[in-house]
Amino acid sequence: MGFKDGFLWGGAVAAHQLEGGWDRDGKGVSVADVMTAGANGVPREITKGVIAGKNYPNHEAIDFYDHYKEDIKLFAEMGFKCFRTSIGWTRIFPNGDEAEPNEAGLKFYDDLFDECHKYGIEPVVTLAHFEMPYHLVEAYGGFGNRKVIDFFLKFAVTCFKRYKDKVKYWMTFNEIDNQSSFNNDFLMCTNSGILLGDDPKENEAKMYQAAHYEVVASALAVKEGHKINPDFKIGTMINFTPIYPASSDPEDILLAQRADQRRNWFSDVQVWGEYPRNVESYIEREGFRPDITAEDRVVLKEGTVDYIGFSYYHTMTVSAKKVAPDDLTDPRLAEVKNPFVKVSEWDWPIDPVGLRYAMNLMTDRYHLPLFIVENGLGAVDKVESDGSIHDDYRIAYLRAHLQEVKKAVDLDGVDLMGYTPWGCIDLVSAGTGQMSKRYGFIYVDKDDEGNGTLKRSKKDSFYWYQKVIKSNGEDLD
Ligand code: BG6
């Protein structure tokens, strides 16, 4: 009973949200570098290149580039067994289509992973976490272009070879399923490097094509990775969002199933090595059958993933009063509020039981180990006059979720590899570009306008999580 020995307790971040140093040591411009700061309910602007005078929060972020030794020391003090981060694609291939990688970028991650190992912290690495080289968007149309598969593969293989003795746990694309909301500029640009047009049908067709190239790129990477080091564990990474019907009306039930099919097929392909029937029939019926070759189908079978890495933030509730089941395209269009769950300051449903439900759904569907690589509460923190930060709301959120995780493990038999809460140190929000939407156990002194000393300090949750790890998840009080 309880979490297994060697359970990977840690925390998760992404390069572009904390490193800063956006143009240091040969790094190129990524899609995150052309996104301005938004606000709660205000989307980030995606500019055509970097425009002087605009506020691009990822350019400096929390300057982990210069602070990583200090930060990893703090993670070690909390007892981290692992640290999930990504490799900034543009540090390694600044434009994405170079013949040779940038040595200074490779060296940075060598040093970073060495620093982790110094404390017995295992790096867990995402290859593409919303960091595509902007040049690939401009010159190739992102993953709308088959050529980008080769660029991604080259990046992946370069990283696998360089870090084959330093990194064992990998994921290919962060939240590859986010683009199921294909009318959202931010999600399409970060997932696929696609800039949208005005016609929703065309956008949907573009998404199915780009996503296909991504699952092929992912499968090729898995296949090559296993050749480079057979001990590698390479996972998918999905933003698993269980879909609830708004009522027991059979139309709502059918709609919830449709929404699940529209949203959760990406990992089906990555785990089974083939498309589910419902997707094949949908894209055929809609007339936007993408370019899928017989060779692609072989590749998909050969490059299936080893585990399910997933983020869990919330569930989604859908109602057939908004969209009829057979008319459903983007599941978000059918979303309604769930009266049984509270929401965060950013209006995200808070549903710990949904996490247990999600873990069971994925275990039943995939028969693979799970790894919770993101979970957490974005909230405004207040620094007291003595410098302390009493984030009891964050502790309550994480405790409630871990209680459900424990039930999934103890009572339902779910095989769980680890737990890495999101934003273990405060960083730039991906969705809004804000610093004030904080997730961390460690506070970073910086505001939404970019002012602050960047000083790190421990929140109450730091000590709570330290205790959780020390007791291997037994002491959640
Ligand atoms: C996930 C992403 O979607 O959620 C992270 O993988 C992101 O990059 C996290 O930061 C939280 O979202 P947000 O918009 O609050 O930063």
TrEMBL record:
Transmembrane segments: none annotated. Keywords: Glycosidase, Hydrolase. Gene3D superfamilies: Glycosidases. Belongs to the glycosyl hydrolase 1 family. NCBIfam families: PRK09589.1, PRK15014.1. The keyword Hydrolase applies. PANTHER family: ARYL-PHOSPHO-BETA-D-GLUCOSIDASE BGLA, GLYCOSYL HYDROLASE. This is 6-phospho-beta-glucosidase. It comes from the Bacteria. The lineage of its organism: Bacteria, Bacillati, Bacillota, Bacilli, Lactobacillales. The active site is at residue 374. InterPro entries: GH, GH_1_N_CS, Glyco_hydro_1, Glyco_hydro_1_AS.
